[in-house]
Amino acid sequence: MAWRCLRAATGRRGWWDASPWGTPLFAAEQRATLVNVKLKWVKDRALDAAVSRERNLRTAHHLLDLVFSRPGHRVSRSDLLAERSVQRLCGSAYSALEFLGRYHTRFALSRGGVSLTRAALDLRQREVECLCAIEHDLVARLRRLLMLTLPRSLPLHTIDLLRWDLGLPSDYQVSILRRCPQHFALEQPEGDERVWLRLLSWDDLLAVSELEKSADGGDTTCLPFLVSFTRGFGLRSKCLDWLREWQALPYTSPYADASGLDRRTYVSEKRNVGVFHELLHLTVAKRTEHQNVSNMRKLLGMPQKFTKVFERHPGIFYLSRVLGTQTVVLREAYGGGCQLLEKHAHPLAAIREEYSILLRAALPPRTRRRKRHEAFGKQDEGSVVGGDKFELSE
């Protein structure tokens, strides 16, 4: 382990050891300010392909959900186009009808209205059965999300933004919240127009991070993160030493009280990385849009410029810029490829992949070939699929 090497090299106790006076010896190191590390972002084609596979998937799934919820799984065009959410997603009635007609493998248009194809209906029924089977897991994920926040609560609007990533059904307020009154409560604080979801019960068994679970019962004092770089990429010795020392610092659980940490230190930075590492693990695809985590800054107890951790640690996170937005991806979950590793796979992820295949089947053959070429084309010389080439300077 890196911290053992450092201990042997320096001939002194680790930063995580307690002094005779009961004060952590790493307290002195906490006073040191962070090194200003600048990173050059470089495109990762494999992870961009993983994000691109969900192009139009959320919009199509929302429309499917609306049609499926109506009697007989059929809705008139006027009723569907009158939905505010449809207008917001598609922009206009014409765009919505064009979208429905384009993906004929999922939607069937007729004079009577809009219905689902047999393939889409069968897949949707499988998804409903899957949601029922993993309801306990969804409740646990939502509880852990609230446990990450300082007030143990979040505005419903924030949860709605994360709903797709967490795998929650569209009717989660009825199907999950109302059925778990022992865990959740809805409240509206005085002077606040928003409705908040508050956690009622803390569970120490849930307050164990994925990084701590990976230790498999071993020492969790100074856990290192799994970091991967481009094959053949060489960090300068000074930067490599910095990374090793940073990995050897004490690990603070994202569920623990971190009010005593100095935000200007490496120990605090490692805690911030740990929070987002855990947050991404709670998602189905191990990724979420950048704006979703930005909305939670204060509630997670993050500093003003907390998103720099994504730029300072590209071996842990990748910022994808496809689909007109920034998406934060947990690199370790993909293992250098564009598919989730089996150990990180979620039952809903497999169903969503089938939805994506159903959408792509409606595209013209030439378009499908072009998308496959863009997703799996040859990498630039010196790079590998899933790798990330960047420059590091101080």
TrEMBL record:
InterPro entries hit by this protein: PORR_domain, PORR_fam
Signal peptide: none
Domain spans labelled PORR: 42-360
Domain of life: Eukaryota
Region (Disordered): 368-394
GO molecular function: RNA binding
Protein name stated in the entry: PORR domain-containing protein
Species, as recorded: Panicum virgatum
Organism placement in taxonomy: Eukaryota, Viridiplantae, Streptophyta, Embryophyta, Tracheophyta
